[in-house]
Amino acid sequence: MSPRLMGLPTQLQQFIARPFQSSPLGFLTPQFQQARNASILSSLSDNPSAYNKRIRRGRGPASGKGKTSGRGHKGQKQHGKVPAGFNGGQTADIVVHGERGGVNIFSLDMAPVNLSRIQEWIDQGRLDPTRPITVRELAKSRCIHQYKDGVKVLGEGSSTLKQPIHLVVSRASASAISAVEAAGGSIATRFYTRTALRHIMAGETHPFISMAWDINSGSKALFAAEGETVDESAVDEKAIMQAKGYKFRLPDPAGRREIEYYRDPAHRGYLSHLLKPLESPSLFFRSPEERKSTAGVKKEKVLPENRLW
């Protein structure tokens, strides 16, 4: 008997050592043959978190990091530390050539969509041009696949626009605005946050109505397409939320960059109704017309009543 079988139970040894006896009717019985690859033993290993090899430096050649501990031979990199960007003692490259590249941490990642794609979705019946087209309709119809920080409409394929459409998006290019308005439609840019976009996708927030939304700022066509009747003076946000069953309110911008963008009528911002005549969208700089209007005005000095001179 093979020495490998000596450690097995007696019955198992007899079964393995017994010669195979073929039956004359063996071709009628189903042949169940189990094949097992012997190399499976070489692929056995612990779970990924069961064994963690810690690097032990300077513990002899067997550790893999012995003798010089991975530092190499001689030089500043072995004997001391080399600062990042060190250029051997001469003038650093960042001083000679300056900084290049970089990442703008304040930039927004907008999902672009062209007017040609919107018109294609309308022709296929996947978008209804008689109703306002918001980020919810664009995402639900798979016209955009990721709404990210919002949606920006671009003017590519503007000549294919056949009917007036009403868009409420985060941003829009100048060519897209002119093309949509030339076709009899309207564009309104609206501030969104990522949390607000998730609520809109879940149907828990109105896609564009908020406290700062004004019915008289070019949005009457939106409400007419929406099929809602509201007061001409203001939008009753609370009544609309109760009627639609919304849980959350849509936020308005609080940062200066966002407020200035959506106050600009050139961007068709929904806060443009807050501007006074000749007022600049900027919260810091004044427009040239506003400066000219206030330059010639001379303020009269008013003295208090109890002043003698």
- The count of β-strands is 5
Largest sheet: 3 strands, parallel
Taking the alpha carbons of the first and last residues, their distance comes to: 130 Å
H-E string: HHHEHHEEEHEHHHHH
**Rg, alpha carbons:** 37 Å
Which regions contain 5 or more consecutive residues with pLDDT less than 50? none
Fraction of residues in helix: 25-40%
From the 3D structure, determine the CATH topology of one domain: Ribosomal Protein L15, Chain: K, domain 2
CATH class category of one domain: Alpha Beta
Mean pLDDT over all positions: 81
Classification by helices and strands: mainly alpha
| Spatial order of strands in the largest sheet | 1-2-4
Number of helices: 11
Q: Report the CATH architecture of one domain.
A: Ribosomal Protein L15, Chain: K, domain 2
Shape: extended
Strand content: 5-15%
GO molecular function: structural constituent of ribosome
Keywords: Ribonucleoprotein, Ribosomal protein
Family: Belongs to the universal ribosomal protein uL15 family.
Protein name: 54S ribosomal protein L10
